[in-house]
């Protein structure tokens, strides 16, 4: 589904309650925005919201539409809804000219301040449904701001689904430990679930933590390879991915190694996808 296919006719105004940089100054800027919506918005964990940033008039564009995932369980009081989104300030390089351009929506959101208002739409979809099986096994893999939907998902799972007693393995990727949003020394939301006994969070980092260093998914995943391959053969295992599009291609290479061949992995992945047990939220 393309962004132009989304229905944005039902729009609403949100007010910025607070905006906080949650990444250290030495890495790319990521901000968490707390937004107040003046109505009881029917939004839940894992859904996305549309942001209609001011468009580029020179291109006849009234709005620049982008999607952002709810980063925590929404709060409701007095007919109002308060929610959080995580935004990475992005730049894009023109492949032909080599010129760098600021991302329209991400820079617009990162520049907002408390009291500012913005136009939104949605919510849309439910990226990661809670499995019907109370003893399901979940493999969650997120990169960068792709961890935000898992933050909301896990809070919903452990706070609102008391019947769930399954196992959860979370792989969170970043170039360095500083890039691991909500999973670092200052802000370790996932530590809340360590005492469950069935939850485990594993960090995937780059061996060369510079601007071009790729996350070493193989180093994080391969030591658990036999176990993960066995889990993915079970009908009660669900694999959820979130992050940049490149995460899917890199993981295909890692899992093909675990499977013994790309063809064998392609068959297993197709089985998972056909059963609704392989779900991706990529951007």
Q: Mind sketching the topology for me?
A:
Elements: E1 11-21, E2 30-37, E3 48-54, E4 63-69, E5 75-77, E6 80-88, E7 91-93, E8 100-102, H1 104-111, E9 117-124, E10 137-143, H2 148-160, E11 167-173, E12 199-204, H3 217-221, H4 225-232, E13 237-243, H5 246-259, H6 262-274, E14 278-282
Parallel strand pairs: 10-11, 10-13, 11-12, 13-14
Antiparallel strand pairs: 1-2, 1-9, 2-6, 3-4, 3-9, 5-6, 7-8
Helix pairs in contact: 5-6
Commentary on this structure:
The chain has 283 residues and is of the alpha/beta class. It contains 6 helices and 14 strands. Helix 5 (246-259) crosses helix 6 (262-274). It is globular and about 50 Å long. The protein starts with 10 loop residues before the first strand and ends with a strand. Mean pLDDT is 82; it is low at 208-213.
In short:
By secondary structure, the protein is an alpha/beta fold. It is built from six helices and 14 strands.
The largest sheet is:
7 strands, antiparallel
CATH homologous superfamily annotation of the largest domain: Nucleotide-binding domain of ferredoxin-NADP reductase (FNR) module
Number of strands: 14
| Share of residues in helices | 10-25%
Strand content: 25-35%
Q: From the 3D structure, determine the CATH topology of the largest domain.
A: Rossmann fold
The largest beta-sheet arranges its strands as 4-3-9-1-2-6-5
The number of distinct helices, counting runs of at least 4 residues, comes to: 6
Order of helices and strands: EEEEEEEEHEEHEEHHEHHE
The CATH C-level name of the largest domain is: Alpha Beta
